[in-house]
Amino acid sequence: ELAQVMQASNQSNGMSGGRFDVTVAPLINLWGFGPKKPGEPIPSDDEIATALEDVGQATLLTLSSDPLTLTKGRPGVTVNLSAIAKGYGIDAVAATLDANGVERYLVEIGGDLVAKGENAEGAPWSIGIESPDASQETIEKIVPVSDLGLATSGDYRNYIEEDGIRYSHIIDPTTGRPITHKTSSVTVLADNAMMADGLATALLALGVDDGMALAESEGIAVFFI
Known about the structure:
32% of the residues lie in helices and 28% in strands. The chain is α+β, with helices and mostly antiparallel strands and 225 residues long. Helix 1 packs parallel to helix 6 and helix 5 crosses helix 6.
């Protein structure tokens, strides 16, 4: 199972030019979205540079098939699958339903989902994409979903503010710093929830300009806000 998730992670990493990265935990923690408490000083350039030494799954993690192994290139490298494992869990539940002959279902965990067949009204499942305003909880767009996975990644609920500056929890692994572009939410439709989950995070890190270019070149169905 871990190898399957890592294969999908490597695919998202390669497609996004490294913006999706499962080794990013040192930076997440450094910026206060892990054990570090909000309100502590913003990291220095030296602290960011030190954390970046253990970030970069393309060079610091090696997935081999024979024998099936995952090897890290530095002692401090860690694997954080929180941006893709939720989608894997959804697909695992869906696979169990498939194996038991269930032909119409919707499996949702934490806002990501996979839908099969039609709903009780005999129509595709109607999925509401939330507007990126945590105080309003309104729907931006409704999309019909059938036999596809859907995932949304946003930074409008999880951020910190220091000295009047807003810092997103989405960290760009290539710079070591939170994203600063104006994209606040990305929704992806894909063949399964795991790929939708990973790609939504990758495209949010890229932003609408670079992200839309990637989506168009790869044939990814995506909705940017």
